[in-house]
Design goal:
By secondary structure, the protein is mainly alpha-helical. It has three domains: 1-41 and 138-312, Growth Hormone, Chain: A, CATH 1.20.1250; 50-90, no CATH class; 330-529, Growth Hormone, Chain: A, CATH 1.20.1250.20. The chain contains 23 helices and six strands. Helix 2 runs antiparallel to helix 9. One of its GO terms (biological process) is norepinephrine transport. It comes from Piprites chloris. It is a multi-pass membrane protein. Pfam families: Sugar_tr.
Length: 549
């Protein structure tokens, strides 16, 4: 009786069918990355706003002032009298009524009008030259409320974290494609609600839920792609991340063409409804079906794959072997119960955390210097493209482990060098920092592939989701770590990044090489894979099997 990998080899490991599924599911990377980075454009800073004096709106209407004239009467005297105040977070502590003159509304305040003017803090009466253009003007996220914009991104990351646990578990229990489709539906519905949220509280609640479903779409599509191709073709796990970068590059174009934050939100959310059409073209993962003792359905899908690939399964392929391992609901204990599973899990969790923290930290530090905001954001995304191509040309030649380790170590060295380079050669600091970002991007993309290759089918989606949840934790911590340490010494964050990256590179060397091996089906396979350090897949071990017609 043939194994699944033998059947897959005869049906075609990366034929027309897999290429179609790969291309369709890769589009998820574009929508997910747009959601991930959307706060940059949803929360564009409002350059011109000021605090309105109570009664100013009525007076302006009675006097026929333009918005610019109202601002001159409100802000200019305040600035002349109190040069430290810009009129954005403070206002004159006065109230205008019908007795105020249109020609000189501050005249009856005498000497105070241009001298020591009474001031008060502005709370909720701001005026924007471009109202409703961003989250900031929509929900007054300025002055004392500015931190709430950062909260919105933290809430999204918390949603990603929650989705990694809940939907990763659900995909292993109920199926990959079911959870993928439900997640796409959830992202679309929540995206619409977010766009028309009546207040900031509703906005945060549904942005969190959108994050949960967003993580479900990305992680599940990644696992489906890696499970339907042969061991020599799992480089598609790297290629699919090119679409994530494409989403980063497309986003500024969307934001440039759409002037309001609601329009941008809808533009990145509504495409998820189109993914529901995949119900008719993307099948359930046959590997997952076998682990749930549904061999007949798995074989039916394999015959369909062979047909689309122009192949024909031999008549004796009426059964597919499946491990005798008992299938149960996955839990964290399953990932750490055996020695080598425990080693892989702990190292991968640290790798996800360090990669995310350093990646986001370097982006915030390097920043975008002047120029066109949209063009600079596009260029900052394009910097990541070489990472995927470098991986593609090296990973199947020299393996996963060495590029994984070297990219972390090079990133750490680049951070350390950048910290001690003098400020009077900014071009060199920027170049070395960019090298660090390119290297950590490579590490970030390789960890996706290695993570999926080191877990058995019964635990793969849950394991990838759980380990990658540390990515979201790193993303939440990164800004706080960066700015708190920079307050002590500007280069101190780079020293911490360097240590984290080098340690990660050394730990990665303890992982087994997964180049050219079949995906493990059971925990026993993982233990065997790890026991032949550096020679994985060279030695076969007999497994008791059952067959399903």
């Amino acid at each position: 009786m043939p194994t699944f990998d033998e059947v897959l080899k005869e049906a075609g490991e990366f034929g027309r069918f897999q290429k179609r599924v790969f291309f369709l599911l890769s589009q998820t990377g574009i929508t997910f990355s747009s959601l991930f980075a959307s706060v940059v454009f949803l929360g564009r800073a409002s350059e011109n706003f000021w605090c309105r004096i109570p009664g100013a709106a009525e007076l302006s209407k009675r006097c026929g002032w333009t918005l610019e004239e109202e601002r001159n009467f409100t802000v200019l005297p305040l600035h002349l009298g109190n040069k430290s105040s810009s009129g954005e977070c403070e206002r004159l502590d006065v109230s205008w009524d019908d007795s105020v003159s249109c020609a000189s509304p501050l005249a009856h305040y005498g000497n105070h009008s241009m001298g020591h003017l009474p001031l008060t803090t502005c709370h909720d009466n701001w005026v924007y030259e471009q109202p409703h253009s961003s989250l900031i003007s929509e929900y007054n996220l300025v002055c004392g409320n500015a931190w709430m914009l950062d909260l919105s991104q933290a809430i999204l990351n918390l949603g990603f974290l929650t989705g990694a646990f809940t939907l990763g578990y659900a995909a292993d229990r109920y199926g990959r494609i079911l959870i993928y489709l439900l997640s796409c539906l959830g992202v679309g519905i929540c995206g619409i609600i977010v766009a028309f949220a009546p207040n900031f509280t509703v906005f945060l609640i549904f942005r969190f839920i959108q994050g949960v479903f967003g993580k479900g779409t990305w992680m599940t599509c990644y696992v489906i792609v890696t499970e339907i191709v042969g061991s020599d073709q799992r480089i598609v796990g790297i290629v699919i991340q090119i679409f994530f970068t494409l989403g980063i590059m497309i986003l500024p174009g969307i934001a440039y063409l759409i002037p309001t934050w609601q329009g941008i939100q809808l533009a990145i959310s509504l495409p998820n409804f189109l993914f529901l059409l995949y119900y008719w073209v993307v099948p359930e993962s046959p590997r997952w079906l076998l682990t749930r003792k549904k061999g007949d359905k798995a074989l039916k899908i394999m015959r369909n794959i062979a047909k689309h690939n122009g192949k024909f399964l031999s008549p004796h392929y009426s059964e597919i072997t499946i491990s005798n391992e008992e299938v149960s609901n996955p839990s964290f204990l399953d990932l750490v119960r055996t020695p080598q599973m425990r080693r892989c899990t702990l190292i991968l969790m640290y790798a996800w955390f360090a990669s995310a923290l350093i990646y986001q930290g370097l982006i915030m530090r390097l920043g975008i210097v002047g120029g066109n905001f949209y063009l600079d954001f596009f260029i900052s995304g394009a910097v990541e493209l070489p990472a995927a191509f470098l991986i593609i040309v090296t990973i199947d030649r020299i393996g996963r482990r060495l590029p994984f380790a070297l990219s972390n170590i090079v990133a750490g060295i680049a951070c350390l060098i950048t910290a001690f380079l003098p400020e009077d050669i900014p071009w060199l600091k920027t170049t070395v920092a960019t090298l660090g970002r390119l290297s950590i991007t490579i590490a970030f993309e390789v960890v996706y592939l290695v993570n999926s290759e080191l877990y058995p089918t019964t635990l793969r989606n849950f394991g990838v989701s759980l380990c990658s949840s540390l990515c979201d934790l790193g993303g939440i911590i990164a800004p706080f770590l960066l700015f708190r340490l920079a307050a002590i010494w500007l280069e101190l964050p780079l020293i911490i990044f360097s240590i984290l990256a080098v340690v990660c590179g050394l730990l990665v060397l303890l992982l087994p090489e997964t180049k050219g091996i079949s995906l493990p089906e059971t925990v026993e396979d993982v233990e065997q894979l790890s026991s032949h350090f550096g020679k994985c897949g060279k030695k076969k071990k007999h497994r008791d099997t059952n067959s399903y017609i």
